[in-house]
Amino acid sequence: MAFGIGAGVFLAVTGKWPSAAWAIWLAAALLVQLRLAANMLDGMVALSTGTESKRGELFNEIPDRVSDSAVLIGLGYASGGDAVLGYAAALVAVGTAYVRAVGKVTAGVQEFCGPMAKQQRMFVVTLVALYGAVFDPRQGSVNDTTGLTPVTFAFYLIIIGGIVTFLRRLRRIDAALRGAS
Question: pLDDT (tens digit, 9 = 90+) per residue, 82-102?
Fold first, then answer.
């Protein structure tokens, strides 16, 4: 969770120190990847040592939601970002996790399908951060007719992909429940 919050803070301050922006973007990209690695490793250790528990699940899920939100909201305040899109992306990310958790409770299945699950969202954020380390994300646009910056374009990918992910998971969980009844 510390890596996720750190990434969010670094992303949010990318516009504060233009001369060091490249290093701040790189640090954010690194922290996003460290967040994913730590999340993966804690689950692998618990499974391989036979120490997984309901309590461990609780302390895995809550930090994940905080980390997702911190990263996406931080990106919203980043150079070339849009705070409203950052909050919207965070809400969609929490929604996809929520429908997965409800699926586990109601149908006994956890749906991890995408196209915009946690790993894909963080991949998009990492790409944008690497882009920001090389180019000024406020300059130019993805498409001159729309004026979208690379950061806002990434948010649209995350939000639209997240809504599709939410609906796919919901449909699969509903099918599992219909099959069980």
Answer: 999 999 999 999 999 999 999
Is 113 buried (19+), middle (13-18) or exposed (0-12) by CB count in 10 A? middle
Total number of domains constituting the chain: 1
Give residue 146's pLDDT band: very low, low, confident or very high (50, 70, 90): low
Residue 37: which CATH number? 1.20.120.1760
Q: Is the dihedral of CA 52, 56, 58, 61 positive or negative?
A: negative
Cα of 90 vs its chain's centroid, Å: 7
pLDDT reported for residue 153: 93
Q: How many residues can be counted in the chain?
A: 181
CB atoms within 10 A of CB 117: 20
Ranges of beta strands (E only) in 18-166 are none
Tokens for 49, please give them. Answer: 């040592």
Contact present, 98 and 151 (Cβ < 8 Å): no
Host domain of residue 149: 2-180
